[in-house]
């Protein structure tokens, strides 16, 4: 039997400016700093304060997803880099979007207060309104740098920004700033990042109002917007329900248990999927059977490993919360035990999605996401009515399982 020769995968090793090592380093350090920030501030402030800050960040996430222009991805994906005039139009559009989102959030702060039981803490939402503006003011040279695969520069900016976010956030929490510390740390990090993109990166676009000349990006960016809306529903639907119906304290417990389970399970799978997608694709180009065999191996290892981790974390949940977050968070242990199952299924879905996209069946992944959305919409209301916040968590499990079942079915249909 003739051995299949796989094509070379164009991934640079080492520490050159375009080396994949910088992407991995950035992921590890940034996610690690986010984990430290949330755990330390969560231990200092408790569930209620984290819930209040989460409502403000939820408002930002919804507004940014519904208004996602997709211009950043379009610049990276386009056949040729943008001219200085086109980059100027991109900056004008993104800065204007950030300003409009900020104005909308300030105007809607009283409504958010009434709907999510903020207890008059509308200043949190109004402060969070600065985040999209700070992000929108960043130079489009950042996207061009990503396009040109200068990962070293991107990693340096992201890690520095995360260090400032983490350091100032924890320092402000210790100084008594309460839930505002979480937002102020993020604002300092985002402001630093935006300023650095103008000082360090090139080419610098002209700073003047210009909207024309970027129509060719619209065809691609509209699909990014559609994808953002689907991701918004799958990622934020549960938080909206819990925050609106059960209040900030329950939302804080929900957020922290979800975040901790994500750090321990799903984040590692997300990083792994960045390796699996090009690897499966390379094997598929060499021969579909080669990719299928490799996929089955990774699937078996993933299922066995995730099952072991879930069992350990469910048994260790109470001492883990007591040691890491303190006694104030022990009420979140039942949620965490459900979320480790959720995140294990989500990790499995990352492997399935990587394989399906690698063999050219990206449509199956989109359909799976839509199926998850439908399942959530149908199952959450009765589950919430019957079982409260844990019912919502089990509905998420059902939605993720339906997503996995569909992708497994599509995998079984591959020739």
UniProtKB/TrEMBL annotation:
Where does this protein reside within or beyond the cell? Cell membrane
Give the superkingdom in one word. Bacteria
InterPro entries, from UniProt? Poly_Biosynth_Transport (IPR050833)
The protein's predominant localisation is membrane
| Membrane-protein topology | Multi-pass membrane protein
Q: Where are the transmembrane segments?
A: 44-66, 87-108, 114-134, 297-317, 323-348, 360-380, 386-409
Q: What keywords sit in the KW lines?
A: Cell membrane, Membrane, Transmembrane, Transmembrane helix
Keyword set includes Coiled coil: no
Family statement: Belongs to the polysaccharide synthase family.
Name assigned to this protein:
PST family polysaccharide transporter
Organism of derivation:
Paraburkholderia hiiakae
